[in-house]
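Page 37, continued from 36.
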């Protein structure tokens, strides 16, 4: 209930500031719509089936690209963290590629894969992959040596140690990177859809801009923000469930609930 209260109060403050800026700034409705106009546009959009199709298209691209990034980033990060000598050679290449914006690769992605779903999926993958990869590798390298000594004393094989001891111990840090990657991936989903896609929320922004419908443009932005909030909340629920099953909720839960 406290979380719901915080969300409601913060949204009311945001809408109030928005309305105040609209009144003081003297903006024309066509250039900067008032909250009421945007709310009306949201209702109008949801009365038509097109918005549901665009949300579905965006979620389809996001889920595929994000899950691929999570799976490959964790797996490769575990292996690189487990073999630090290999990581020392690979890390310079990663550090060169990581700062490059996924959008910078878009011309090549379109040339290689054409237009449609794949360019957006690839951009989402790139945006989410590096934070998860690097955090996972670093967290594996920082595992308390006592875990490894105990595993060695019990004669546990190395591959079992990696997935049954090291991964659970590193999971809280990995989950933090998954949170960060979620936001980056959602941001770049919209950017990817604004170039070449014929459906999705990013395409809807471009369409509203081309038709000079600023109320629909801001309405789409609000919808994107709300979906991003819901996705982040879902990730937190999943994280809490996993930590609870591993007996770490009491130790780690407060830290992540604060994020």
């Amino acid at each position: 209930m406290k979380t719901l209260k915080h969300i409601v109060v913060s949204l009311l403050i945001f809408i109030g500031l928005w309305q105040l800026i609209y009144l003081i700034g003297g903006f024309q409705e066509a250039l900067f719509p008032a909250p009421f106009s945007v709310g009306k546009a949201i209702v109008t959009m949801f009365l038509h089936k097109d918005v549901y199709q665009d949300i579905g298209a965006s979620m389809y691209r996001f889920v595929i690209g994000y899950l691929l990034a999570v799976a490959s980033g964790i797996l490769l990060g575990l292996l690189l963290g487990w073999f630090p000598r290999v990581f020392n050679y690979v890390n310079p290449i990663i550090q060169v590629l990581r700062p490059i914006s996924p959008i910078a690769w878009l011309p090549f992605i379109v040339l290689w894969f054409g237009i449609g779903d794949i360019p957006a999926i690839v951009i989402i993958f790139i945006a989410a992959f590096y934070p998860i990869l690097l955090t996972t590798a670093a967290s594996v390298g920082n595992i308390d040596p006592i875990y490894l000594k105990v595993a060695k004393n019990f004669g546990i094989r190395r591959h079992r140690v990696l997935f049954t001891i090291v991964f659970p111990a590193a999971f809280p840090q990995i989950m933090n990177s998954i949170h960060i990657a979620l936001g980056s991936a959602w941001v770049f989903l919209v950017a990817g859809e604004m170039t070449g896609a014929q459906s999705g929320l990013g395409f809807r922004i471009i369409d509203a801009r081309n038709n000079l419908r600023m109320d629909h443009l801001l309405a789409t932005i609000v919808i994107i923000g709300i979906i991003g909030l819901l996705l982040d909340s879902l990730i937190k629920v999943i994280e809490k469930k996993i930590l609870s099953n591993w007996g770490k909720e009491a130790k780690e839960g407060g830290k992540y609930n604060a994020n």
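DSSP finds eleven helices and no strands in the chain. Flag for discussion at group meeting. The first helix runs from residue 2 to 25.
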